[in-house]
Amino acid sequence: MGQRMVREAGALLAQARSVVVLTGAGVSAESGVPTFRDALTGLWRSFDAQRLATPEAFRDDPALVWGWYEWRRATVRQARPNAGHLAVAAIEARVPSGVVVTQNVDDLHERAGSVAPIHLHGSLFAPRCSACAHPAPVPDEVAEEPGDGRRVVPPRCARCAGLVRPGVVWFGEALPAMALEAAVEAASTCDLLVTVGTSGLVYPAAEIPQVAARSGATVMQVNPEQTPLDADADVNLRGPAAQVLPALVQ
Ligand code: BV8
Ligand code: ZN
């Protein structure tokens, strides 16, 4: 990716009045948080994320699914926001209207200073009762990090004794309506949408760049690899977020 391209992209960003930054698991990769498909090591290696991140998997084996999310939460707790997250927070702070929309369930945008990222797929830090939806406390950091594949029996709800589940959106579950509406509203009124580190495979989140493009916004993609979003992008910056994003905001 040439210096000229980065300079031109930086100029586009500098003159944008309202910017939406849409992030996927790739923005946390350089913090050591595996992307969705890489989050399956150890016992989980034999599983397909799309099968494990489902209500059916939790119904059939709650301890396996809860253990996977405990392991992922432990990984996020040990991770630190990277230069990409910090640059996203800088973009948000600098433009007149900056909105961060994330598909990620980690809290690295918040820890990098992003004020109120829109979480389309929920959060590892918002467990709730699977029966009555009562919010449940986030379990303390376990002394020994749950190893790969360790089953962990989920806690019980203080109100109804139902099984506590992760506060994430599983495949086959509807996204939180308010979050999706806010994200679509921001994408349809922004003049620049920067999509970072998402494979553009998961719907309806993958439609957000198209909403921006159809509304006349410029779409800029940051990803080391090609994705289906290449077609919607006016600018394709082929590189890792922690390198490319800081170059855009300097
Ligand atoms: C729903 C939370 C309906 C859980 C996740 C059409 C319309 C609507 C739905 C569908 C549809 N077609 C199919 C569906 C069903 C399904 C779907 O999209 N399936 C796909 C696989 C085809 N969608 C759903 O089920 C959604 N629900 O539609 O419900 C409904 C409506 C009403 C009532 C009832 C039901 C729910 C989808 C949400 C699933 N939950 N996460 C958890 O995290 O455990 S999605 C999960 O996968 C992640 O959050 C992530 O968003 C997504 C993809 O994972 P990854 O590929 O790892 O991550 P990412 O996409 O970000 O890719 C990594 C990228 O980073 C790569 O491109 C890589 O090149 C890049 N990268 C790597 N390193 C770097 C980097 N980039 C920059 N810098 C780097 N250093
Ligand atoms: Zn309950």
Automatic annotation (TrEMBL):
Zn(2+) binds at residues 129, 132, 157, 160. The active site is at 121 (proton acceptor). NAD(+) binds at residues 103-106, 197-199, 223-225, 241. Its EC number is 2.3.1.286. Coiled coil: none annotated. Keywords: Cytoplasm, Metal-binding, NAD, Transferase, Zinc. Binds 1 zinc ion per subunit. It comes from the Bacteria. It catalyses: N(6)-succinyl-L-lysyl-[protein] + NAD(+) + H2O = 2''-O-succinyl-ADP-D-ribose + nicotinamide + L-lysyl-[protein]; N(6)-acetyl-L-lysyl-[protein] + NAD(+) + H2O = 2''-O-acetyl-ADP-D-ribose + nicotinamide + L-lysyl-[protein]. Substrate binds at residues 69, 72. It is found in: Cytoplasm. Residues 1-250 form the Deacetylase sirtuin-type domain. NAD-dependent lysine deacetylase and desuccinylase that specifically removes acetyl and succinyl groups on target proteins. Modulates the activities of several proteins which are inactive in their acylated form. PANTHER family: NAD-DEPENDENT PROTEIN DEACYLASE SIRTUIN-5, MITOCHONDRIAL-RELATED (PTHR11085:SF10). Belongs to the sirtuin family. Class III subfamily. 2 residues (Tyr-69 and Arg-72) present in a large hydrophobic pocket are probably involved in substrate specificity. They are important for desuccinylation activity, but dispensable for deacetylation activity. This is NAD-dependent protein deacylase. It comes from Micromonospora peucetia. The lineage of its organism: Bacteria, Bacillati, Actinomycetota, Actinomycetes, Micromonosporales.
